[in-house]
Structures are given as C-alpha cells and as structure tokens.
TrEMBL record:
Transmembrane spans: 12-33, 39-59, 133-153, 160-180, 200-217
Superkingdom of origin organism: Bacteria
Protein name, UniProt field: Uncharacterized protein
Swiss-Prot/TrEMBL keywords: Membrane, Transmembrane, Transmembrane helix
Amino acid sequence: MTLWLREWRSLRSAMAAAIAGYVMLVLLSLIVADRPRNVFYYNEMGSVLLAIMASGTLFQRELSGSQMELFAAYPASLAGMVVRKGVWALGVVLVFHPMWTLVYLWKFQGMITYVSIPWAGVGPGAPVSEIDLLAVAVPGYLAAIGITIAVMVAAKRVHIGLLAGFGFWLWQSLQGPGLGSVSLFTPYLPQNTSLLANRLVWAGIGMVCVVVAAGLAERRERWIGVDSPE
C-alpha cells in the first residue's frame, strides 16, 4: 500500500495544475453550452487527452531534472513502479469521468446518445448508460497511457513521452474516419467494423506498451550516467 501511495504523491506536482485547469475548462464548457456536443468529445477525445497528461505528471519526479541516477537506486521493483503509475493514470481519468458525466446529464437530461455502430444490443444513436460509455472508452485510455509511458521510459524524458502521446491523439483526431477500422475513436469506425475486436486490440496495445516500459525500466543500468537532464 505504501508503494501505491508513493506513486499517488507523484500527482502533487506543477503539472497537476495543468490537469486541474483542463478539467475545469471542460466542465465550464459543459455548463455554459447552449446545445450539447456529442458526448463522444468528452468520453473519448477529451478523456484520452487527460490520460496522456496524467501519465506525464506521474513520471515528472523521476524523469525530469537530475533525479535519474536516484531512479536507478529506487528501493523496489522499477517494473512494478511503472505498472502502478499506469494504473494511477487510468484512475485519474476514472475519477473525473463520473464528474463530467453527471454535469452532462444535469445540463442535458436524456440527451446522451452515443454508440455509432451496433454493440451489445445497443443500436446506433440509442441512449446509453454511464457503464456503456466507460466500456467503450477505457481501451482508448489504456492505449494512450501505454504509448505515452513506453515512449517516456524509452527516451528517459517526460516531454518526449508527452509529445508522442499528444502526437498520437492529434493524429487520431485529425484522421478521423480516414483510419477506418483501426480508429481509436469509436464514432469514426465504419459500420461493418467489429467494435469488440477494435476495443480489444487497443486495450492489448496499451497493456503491451506498459509491459515493454516495465521491462525497460527494470534495466537499472539504463538510468546510470545520464548527464543531459531535461
């Protein structure tokens, strides 16, 4: 439990203010909106961005400044530390997810329609529950967290991992339907795509990236002799 709390304390950094500001802006945009935007923008596109920011914040202490040789002397498994930070990054998104969902429901009661292709008996455009929203979106969160953490650990730099994560998010956002059945965002998937297969693939990519990052982190010799701090 102590190790889990230690990773949680990593959230108490300057970058946490950026997360708080982002969440407040999202909530404010919901409160002042006259017409509802598709809930997809909050459930997937906006929350994936939050997952990337949380991943960077959790590693700010270890992969910024001149702390990396101390990182090598971390008195516990570095692989375990990477996994715990990945779980915390997902936890940050899951904490804020109900917050904006409740605000959305309060402001636009009965107006959540979401799924663009049939899934688990839910037809296109049909009302969905909060659980449906989470089930559809969590694989995207996992993929964004995994990619960000893997690049961050491989490059030993927070800002490179964040650039990779934001670049991935921007690429997926700009390409939209052009990515076909491999799109991270479900509203862009073609009608004949298996939503379950798409979600499993992205969840798998996220978990594989975390495993790769954990393996790289555990090689302690990588963290010794780094002389060009961020």
